[in-house]
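This protein record is not my work; I was only asked to verify it. Take the sequence as given and treat only the C-alpha cells as open to question. I have pasted the whole thing underneath without changing anything:
***
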Amino acid sequence: METEEYQKIIKSKNVLDYGTLNVTMEALKKLGDTRLVMQVERIMRDNGIEKPKQHNKRDEKTTNYYTIDLDVDDISAIVSMLGDKEAGSLGPNYETTRAASLYGTLLDNWNRIILD
C-alpha cells in the first residue's frame, strides 16, 4: 500500500485508531459488557488496516488503525457509555478534567462514525 492511499483510508469516517479502541474496550470491560468487548476485540484482531511499507512503526500496535463494522445500535451504545463516562469524570463544579477530556475525545471519535 502506498502512503497516500493509507492516509486517505485512515481518515475515513469508519476508521478508528488503536488508542480509541483500547480505552473503549477497557471502559466496556469495567461495565461488564462482554458482548461489546468481544466485538471490539474482534475488530482489533481482524480489521486492521495495512500500513505502508515506508511506515516508520510498522510493528508497533499503538500506531494501528481499524475499520469499524459495528451496527448503529452497537455504536450508539458505546457513544452513550462514553457520554456517561465523560459526565461522570467532570470536577465538582462541572469543570473539565483530564479524564473528562479523554472521554470527550473518544466520544467525538465514535460519533464521527454515525454522524454526517
